[in-house]
Each structure stands twice: as C-alpha cells, then as structure tokens.
Amino acid sequence: MDYNKIYWEDLGVKAEISAFAPTGKVEEIHAILHVEPRGELFEGQLNRIYEGEARLSALPPVEGATPILKRYFLSDSTNQQPLMRQETSCAVSVIQQPPLDGGKIAVWTYLQKGSRVTEAGGMTVAEHNGYQHLWKMGMHEHKGDSAWQTESLLISYEEALQNFRATLAGHCIRTWFFVRDVDTQYAGMVKARKENFKEQGLTEQTHFISSTGIGGSPADTRALVQMDAYALTGFAPAQLRYLYAPTHLNPTYEYGVTFERGTVMEYGDRAHVFISGTASINNKGEVVHVGNVVKQTERMWENVEKLLEEGGTTFDDVAQIVVYLRDLCDYPTVKAMFDRKFPRTPHVLTLAPVCRPTWLIEMECIAVRPQGNTAFRDF
Hints:
Elements: E1 2-8, E2 13-20, E3 27-35, H1 42-56, E4 66-74, H2 77-80, E5 91-96, E6 105-113, E7 116-120, E8 123-128, E9 131-140, H3 146-162, H4 168-171, E10 172-179, H5 182-199, E11 210-215, E12 225-233, E13 240-243, E14 262-266, E15 270-278, H6 293-310, E16 318-325, H7 331-341, E17 347-351, E18 361-370
Parallel strand pairs: 4-5, 10-11, 16-17
Antiparallel strand pairs: 1-2, 2-3, 3-6, 4-6, 7-8, 8-9, 9-12, 10-12, 13-14, 14-15, 15-18, 16-18
Helix pairs in contact: 3-5
C-alpha cells in the first residue's frame, strides 16, 4: 500500500490518499478530502472541496482512475445537500455526520483504474475479469417508522439485485445503516433487519453481512434510516469467509443484532478485508471502559487488530478508516491518538453516536493485502 498526503494551501484542502497499484492489474485508490473552514459558509467550502476533487484526479496516483463511490459527510445535510451538484458518474452517499476538524464537509472517494464502470439498474457497476462490483448508495424512505423504512429499503435493494441475478444472502458483502436519532430509532432498524434476514435465509446457523449501524441523518427530514450497500457477483463460495476474533468479540446474535464482525474476499492477486463498525466490547458482549474514551479507543484498536489478523492483514494494509464519536469534546484527544497511530492512513473523524449510549467511539476500515493464489481469478 502506498500512502500520500497533499495540501493545497491556496484551497485550504488536504487530501489523504492510499493506493494499491500492482503492475499490470486493476489499481484501487482511496482518498479522503478535508477542508479548512476559513470563516466561509458551506457553499464556499463545498466549492473548494470540488476543486480539490478536480486536482486530486490529476495527481499521479489517481490520474486516469474512475470514481466508484463518494460519501460526503456534512454538518447539516438538510440545508446543504440542495446546494450540491447532482453526480451521476458514480454511487453517491450524502449523510449528516459532521466532520470534527472544523469544516462543514469532508468526502471519502473510492476509485479504480483498469475496470469498466457503468450505471445500470440503479447501481454503479465496476466490471473486470468476470466480476461485477455493485454499489448502491443513499437509499432512503420517507414514510413509516424506522422498522418500516428498513424493511422497505431491504426489499427494494433485494429487487435491484435481481437485475444482476444476485441475492442479498448470496452476494451482498457490506452494508451501512445510518439512523436518525440512533438512541431511539436503532431498535426498529435492528428488528426489521433481523426479520428480513430470516426471510432471506440469513440466520445464526448460516451467516450475516458485515455492517455499520450508526447515528446519521439523511437530508430528507422524514427519513429515519439511510442505507448504503456493496455486492459482488462472479465469485466462487470459497473466496468468501467471515471474521470472528472469538478471544475478543462475541457473535453479534448473542445480543440481538445480525451482522458479521468482518468479511474477507479473496482474489488471485489480493484480498479485501471489510471490518464492520467496531467499538470497545469484550467477548461477552459487554461494553469495556465505560466513560473513558482513551481506554475505549485502545480496546477498539485491539479488537480491530485481531479481526485484521484473522483476515491475514495488519494495520499496514488498511486503506481507509472512518471514526465515529458520540461527544465532540473528545475530538482533540482522539484525533491526537489516531494521528500518532495512523500517521499515513487516510481517516476521517465524524460526530455520530454509536448504537449503545455508553460507547463513546466506533471505527470501521477497509484493508487490501497482496497475495498470489492461483485457485482464484485476479481482482
């Protein structure tokens, strides 16, 4: 993994970039852009982010790459999203999870070189070497409670997958559920997801799907849940496995939720490791270090490290990190900790309460490791 940081002083924009670029194969790039506030209103900061994206596309690690997805983290999605341009070149997610570095906006972008990227069936589709990578972002409903909206979103997503001869149970690799007022609305989302999964044949005896369920507000004030998802077709069952780290974590169904701690997708030339939202928890499902954000951060890192190890990776293979904080006043402490531990890895810290009130922090990440496995086709 190659890491770079670029700061455009005239723009007040910083780009953190990771690139997995094996010679003669599909290249993958993750970039997180941050903007300095500079006393500007949102529109000014937005225009500087857009200019930063344009400059990013001309940098050597990124030049010639095609965007697959963008997730914009906003400080006030209801008022800010209408000011944003309509993007059709890739999957886009916009969510109110205020960046904690002072700016009103940050963006995570995932790009590829060497794949064919199209829009079909409401999905962004990246095709190469017999695989179809399906990204569908920003799904939301505006009627009913959080349970009804979650059920509706999952049904709509399952119908969209059918256009690609895919199913939720057989092909979905990663989901994100952003829940407005997570302390009161999360339970409805969990209930509906559990019931839907059971109908799709996803149980504790089979498998679930790696996921993050976190506080976040869609731009539509009627939407209580927003869903993002990634699915894959063209792979053999042996390429996919799940991560548990039983010395540190317990199965999620033991405390009533239905997601996997992590997922590994093996290819001939690389492996992708998707780590779900992970917090300070032990293998009995108990919150560890209640009230101490430093200790919770350290235990969270320990849990993620164990999952990565089980996936054959380390923190040196991590391409991007998203961090969620409940209390904005913890930002200086946690930011300093992350900058010391991950000085090169692209990461963003946002204000987004975790699903249990006593969890002060959560993180998710994606890792990519090289390998030579002739049993599987290259990525």
